[in-house]
Amino acid sequence: MGSILDRIAGKRNNGIPAGAVFTITQSGREKLQEFKGDAVGCVLAALETEGSIGIIEIAQNAKLGRGSVERLVPKMVAKGFIQYQGATPGEDY
Fold it and tell me: pTM for the whole thing?
């Protein structure tokens, strides 16, 4: 069995745990300058502004659909732009 980070990064599946919380990495901060205006840039900007937040909050702050964010997050974790911080108990993602 793979770790939760393997699953988030898409090595097992694209399932994101309920209540998952993410934060931007230093690499993500550097890439934020290159991604202005596209969906990746919007997600990075939301995380830069809000800190550690979940999928719903990322989608709201980035002004993107939840499905779009759910598809982007595993790719962004795999590229090292964002980091999984854990899950908040009792919350939907």
Answer: 0.78
